[in-house]
Structures
1.
Amino acid sequence: MSHPQSVFDNTSFFGETILSRRRQIIASITLRAQLEQLKQTGRYDCFKLKWHPIYDDKSMWPVPYHLFWDSDVAKWIESACYFLQREYDASIDLAVRELVDMIRDAQQPDGYINVHYTVVEPQKRWSNLRDMHELYNAGHLIEAALAHHKYYRNNHFLDPIIKYVSLIHCTFGTSEAQLHAYPGHPEIEMALFRLYSVTKSQEAYELAQYFLQERGSPSGQHGMHYFDWEAQQRKEDPYTRPNTYPERNSHWYCQAHKPILEQETIEGHSVRAVYLLTAVADMVQLHHKGGKTLSNPDAWAEAVSRLWTNMVGKKMYVTGGIGAIKQWEGFGCDYFLPTGTHEGGCYAETCASIGIMMLAERLLSYDLDSSYSDIMELCLYNNVMTAMSLDGKQFSYINQLASSDIDKSIREDWFWCACCPPNLTRLFGSLGGYLWHVQESETKVAINIHLYTTANLSYTTALLENVSLQQISNWPWDGHVSLDLSSQSRSVTIRLRLPSWCHEQFEITPSPALDDFSIEKGYLALQPSYTNVHKKFSISIGGFEPRYISPHPYTAQHALGIARGPIVYCMEDTDNPWQHNYFRDVALKKSEPISEEAKSMANGEDYIGLRTKCWLTREDISASTAGPIFDASIGEDTSEKSAILIPYFLRANRGGNGEMRVLLRRGEE
Amino acid sequence: MSHPQSVFDNTSFFGETILSRRRQIIASITLRAQLEQLKQTGRYDCFKLKWHPIYDDKSMWPVPYHLFWDSDVAKWIESACYFLQREYDASIDLAVRELVDMIRDAQQPDGYINVHYTVVEPQKRWSNLRDMHELYNAGHLIEAALAHHKYYRNNHFLDPIIKYVSLIHCTFGTSEAQLHAYPGHPEIEMALFRLYSVTKSQEAYELAQYFLQERGSPSGQHGMHYFDWEAQQRKEDPYTRPNTYPERNSHWYCQAHKPILEQETIEGHSVRAVYLLTAVADMVQLHHKGGKTLSNPDAWAEAVSRLWTNMVGKKMYVTGGIGAIKQWEGFGCDYFLPTGTHEGGCYAETCASIGIMMLAERLLSYDLDSSYSDIMELCLYNNVMTAMSLDGKQFSYINQLASSDIDKSIREDWFWCACCPPNLTRLFGSLGGYLWHVQESETKVAINIHLYTTANLSYTTALLENVSLQQISNWPWDGHVSLDLSSQSRSVTIRLRLPSWCHEQFEITPSPALDDFSIEKGYLALQPSYTNVHKKFSISIGGFEPRYISPHPYTAQHALGIARGPIVYCMEDTDNPWQHNYFRDVALKKSEPISEEAKSMANGEDYIGLRTKCWLTREDISASTAGPIFDASIGEDTSEKSAILIPYFLRANRGGNGEMRVLLRRGEE
């Protein structure tokens, strides 16, 4: 099994695409800016296990400010190792080495590694699995160690981590002396499956599978739900609960309200949900391709599929964001997708959409279907990329589709809970692993292209033959992709994703014969009969005209947005000074033509801007004096305006007042 | 100051109006059915202070099942006394006498009366003002005693209650030995102001004013917020909280997040909010008309006005319901008004709309403006009346505008928290007090008519002259109202409400001269120059054509409903068997004509049904496979259907599957 984090270096990006530009910015700017944040905040030195003043701060319960520091450091190391593989950087290398040495020194004699439970509450290890992110932090350490192992080609970091995994393996499991527990915040499961894939550690596999199978058991520990049992051990009143639990026993917050196989809808904290499902997909994939037997594999595959379908069809924003509710950073009921705080919520956390990309990549590896890659791309170019400023120094954690006085369209340098910024960097570091999958059997090689850009794939087969494929395109601005295949002796099938919005408009040059290709579940497969003859060929994918989009009618939003290819657009106050009230009174009409304008950002990045007519409803709608009932004809007295739209991922880079909206009112034609 | 509960018996209903029918049903059926519930559940005997098995049930915290029993009994006594005044009923009279005797016997030597804190937790009086409804129960006892005093014309019940009020007056106040507290659930404030109005008890007035002035102080008790201080006294962990508190310190739940004068928007539990504001309006009115001085009276009046405006303009359903959120039975953010559980919520508690009627009545008494009476009527004929079945035996607590599998359109016999059923009966018992206000000055009498129906007003002036006014109408089905004034010597001004939906279409017969009338803030004033000449006259109010209505555009609902006069309509599955999915896929178009049909319910009650064309969107909208983005043209492939609508207040009386909806999708014209 080949995870993106393991095979990303088969891909090299080149040219001036959106993706290569961001990788360049992260390598040259972002990694250093984040390292500086680690140093300024105390994170860099935390594994020295000295007391830090912030540890005295008891104002937050149950999660103190420093609880995720281990993972912040780990995610930065992981990102750094990916980018070191791209291009050596002595200062980054030095920091990684220092950090790893500190982590090694922080390991306790029995293998345990965790800052909080070594320094702050040394007697309370494993006493609050629900809230305290101990296993989450361990998971990120595993991922960091795997990245380190891959780049440095030594076990300096991996060995202590394997020792830690052994300790965890002893601690959790089915025997009476073990805790029948699982992490409140899933993450370690996918880290463990990856560890297994790299090292064949049976402990890692068993532990991950145990966490997934035990999760949500109503009677796992002494006849009780584990989280209830451990709260009782902590002598907590049953009505004592974190702020994230709206009511007592809100175990759905961390997807532990029932066993995974019985969950019908995706619930709770959105990052936890997609991390968990990624691990389940890993387990299914290991059954199909990794030689691990799994009881009831179809039920596990169906659970992931069912929850994915619920998520993308009923709980996802048009930008690929998920999570409507701030309190639990997660899902509301089906179709509950208000687009901003003033409408009742919108969270759309950056990490959640990164998790969706991970999950989609796993699903694509055993169920090639463009509906997964469409969502992966939607997330990448919209909810994920909008979370970093063009200068690579600022980030957003929540990504609303409509700003308001309370939540303006802005970004921050850093967060006390800093999960998102290093998640962005590690995603972009391993992004090559998301572009394509290589499938190799004894006689055949297939390359499934999920994302178009400008990059080169170099793959070595089991027989040590080299297969390489180059794609050159100006994606996502146009749909022309030139491909250049090189393989020594093998026949290669190339499968090209046809995004749903292209409606199967495409043209291959040179034109293939009917027998040379087939289309299945949104992928066009070019057979060896074609690729053996045509090493250089191109595809032109259609559907790049700007188009009006809307959310599902059951969202009760009568709204229109505009998309072009995979890019969702927004309006910003800086382009549209006539607007007021965060574009709340602006309507689009779907019959109105949209024109394109070639534009550049201040840093030279080109993009396609859009312009159309819109209608500004009379201002007095907001001055409500009429009570709850409106005459149905109100709101039609509007004035025509010219609207300028910019890709959502470029929002908040050009000053302005932070007024932005993706979905506008849908005007009557 | 004359509260509806004090002057309702100046009004006698007659004829076969919607209102008189319901009063008849309550008198003959409902009071007995509720009495039977009191007896079956243990409430009837609770003041005997014996142990009841339910007191052992510790599964609910902090509010045990029996906590409101005192108020349930009190509200039934209050209702019973109002209806005894209408027509004597020996069994009801007997029950009232028995209950009052039991309450008298339950009084402790110091005056204290409370079942829970006498029987279950006798050492913990006043230890949890936030949650335990001790003062709320006391408030309802006061109201019951006032009703008893009015009907029985003795002090058998009122005397012990006055003693209890003295105890409370000693307990709460500004001095160091007193608690600087106020009730978590307001109610006692308005009861105390009414007690003052009847008895001139200074203790009652002072106590009510203190509760209002102290509420929300951030540092009232030893420098702390009272509710935080008392939780500390109870040794509660700061993160221990009732399920109704979504996060710790959610003191907005009970309008105690800041002093009332500083509150900018109406928040939290909706019943508490409107009960509280009713008391504030009482206090303002007592300043203007009751001879009580109040510091900063304009600020108090402005606070009520500000919060009323916020409520009716931004937080009220088209049916007069308030409260979108189930968890705290209260308000969401501005314009957050989903219409059912499947859309993200809708509570619209019966008691809350009854509270709005109380508040509107108080506001009308010092600020005559038809915007208040329009809302009062909207609540009465829609959210309030829909809460009782036609047979008078079943009730609803929440009144959603759209039902779903989770919350069907049904009613129940009773509730463990049974606040709503007896609130309906006491409202209808005192309803005469809401129809009109009589204003008397030395030389003038004015009668302000807020609600039209068929009823007679008989008023005795300070000089013991009789003024009477009869109105006969078929309201709310048509707008013709015949009036017949009789006064001995006084000149009488009659002010007639012009509902906003009549758009000032009216005709007075005989026609008044221009000098004979004026219109101000939605009331048409007929001067003595007219009424001295024309004792019998009539008004025909227009606007009874069925009309399309919509919620505010900022609710993000692109929806249409239909209203006729004050009546809001709904669709039910029983009339529209072609529908599926709770009318979620049905669209109305505002250009489509609506026809009327004279109909009768099985019990003989006539009503006007409506019929129009509607459009059923193709069913596959609900089968979402396309991900979060819809082609903007989806949803237009519809089939035309004929829709039958029935008044919302008549829903769920004719069988069917409980599928009902008020607001339908708004189709493109």
2.
Amino acid sequence: MEYLQQSFSVRFEYKTFFTSGLFELSNTGFNDFIAADSTSASIKKILFVVDQDVLKANPKLADQIRRYFSIHKAAQLIPEIIAMPGGELIKNDEGFFSRVLQIINQYNIDRHSYVAAIGGGSILDMVGYAAAVAHRGVKHIRIPTTVLSQNDSGVGVKNSINYFGKKNFLGTFVPPVAVFNDDQFLLTLSDRDYRSGIAEAIKVSLIKDAAFFEWLEANADALVARDMPTMKYLIKRCAELHLNHIAGLDPFEKGSSRPLDFGHWSAHKLEQLTNFKVLHGEAVAMGIALDTVYSNLSGRISVDEANRVVNLIKKIGFEITHPLLEVTGDDSPILIGLQEFREHLGGELTIMLLERIGVGIEVHEMDAQLIKKAGEILKNEHAALSAV
Amino acid sequence: MEYLQQSFSVRFEYKTFFTSGLFELSNTGFNDFIAADSTSASIKKILFVVDQDVLKANPKLADQIRRYFSIHKAAQLIPEIIAMPGGELIKNDEGFFSRVLQIINQYNIDRHSYVAAIGGGSILDMVGYAAAVAHRGVKHIRIPTTVLSQNDSGVGVKNSINYFGKKNFLGTFVPPVAVFNDDQFLLTLSDRDYRSGIAEAIKVSLIKDAAFFEWLEANADALVARDMPTMKYLIKRCAELHLNHIAGLDPFEKGSSRPLDFGHWSAHKLEQLTNFKVLHGEAVAMGIALDTVYSNLSGRISVDEANRVVNLIKKIGFEITHPLLEVTGDDSPILIGLQEFREHLGGELTIMLLERIGVGIEVHEMDAQLIKKAGEILKNEHAALSAV
């Protein structure tokens, strides 16, 4: 059949900045970014959508932003700072997504203007999706406020909302124009939220960087004690590994391989089953423990290394398993979750396991009996394991 | 401010096929494409969404598709062929978009499966948008059935729906995985629809390819007579120029320049004001005439060449102006349309004019008095112009 071949490449570039006190008047970094971004003669407007819990924890933030843009004028601030709830709720209820679109329309935010989101991964996902589709893409700036979003989801290229009760059913691959990680936001996090974000650092170290895993082991106490320089290093290294992965073979996930989903297949199901009462990082920590022990049982990572992984997870303060992760029969939720994950990937299962610390390996089948045994070991025998 | 630099390129490739009788059993091109596309072990499903007027004009089409996939099995056909209205209506009412999402969900269409749309530009835009955001992108195949969509919008990388009463307010830049142009669909078009698509060929010739313009002049009679080989050449050359343009500097329109929007700023307003009773191509033909005469009045294209442009538009059978394009005062709809276009572009106006046939030039201001005079010339004096 006769045809014309189309082929072109699109270059995507953005910076993930690291700062402290982003909207302090003396900190010109944000304004400098806007001033340097694009040479269009158009007026650049900027709209802020902020997690209401972040506003509550940082009661001066809205005024601080207004003052900042009254002095630093690279962009024209939309004076209304939009407050919205954070958490999974904001991705479940389409009304929040629609409201962001409505505000983009109301304030004539165009392709040369900015929609900035301040908050955790959920609000960044939702606002990022709205920004990606309004006018086929207005400029989106992410200001993640949690450990999890600063080191992982916030620096990536995905956005989404839930739909038909399915996580991330709607979304796009559209990078932000910039990410600003401000360590001051970490100060107001609860211990539980703070800890939760460390799971993704453990995950990425296990599949990409053994030295980073060793660093995590050596610095576990400082992380638990919320030592800020230690956390800043963790976030930067984790973000860097994440960014490098995206820039690798398949930024927009055209293939089936999802190495960064290590430990996630069971975690997604657990979050859903507990109605997100188990936090994402908590679920991922359990998922990592499960897939690590499974990796050992299926002849991959050594028992010594598996023990080091489980022990690090425990040392950070995570639970290592959950009753809903137990296999009690063919219809156990976790096996249904595995089936759903297979369907989500389009029929061919691809699961990342561990060859050893720092080296992952993809498999296309998982054995239900070994999943069961891995769960039992985590539940019953981890005293033995951790005694090694 | 400290930062990590992210940069990567994403390669986009797709073919625009030209065929006759796409779903005839002997034509294996479509099946060959699916069989060769991706090496995933997953089952590939395919869902068809078809313009109901196309189904009416081609009453055997649905059965033909079912028979085709019962013999050629590279993809598993979803037996339900979804019929939807064509035209702008389908982009205005979000219900159609939601229904496509619901069907994608219902039949578990995933990233390795296909949503094919058969119809004109509007239904391709809407279905393409749904496919782009479901699961962050399922594979989308376009089968354009009109001259306009086969030579222009159908081969491009944009999709959209209207929202808040604004044309294309929501959408993405996501290329299809393939386009199939089947000339058999052109046989059932009305003369008006058939003619309408020729406007984009005139447009692209004027800004890109003087030789193609001369070919259009030489073949105007054959086009009016609906000679098929002539139309096939027109569609292929126009699609090629369009594809080459996209593959050029700015596929996803990050800048303000929109050369392919030559003649479109007034056309968009006219379509909207007439509630799309004036077809897109008809409005574009008038928009080209206006901007061509304006180009002459503002010291660019010669009067001889401007006359050739207007005469070709007339010879194809288009009207060259419309009462709603007249400037009668500062609040004339066309001047409001110009203002809206400026806002749509983000404050800086960029309008393509003609330096000469085949060579465009961008300007950032338009003179209301010259727009008025151009309209008057088209209305009153074109007899004189065309006598040259």
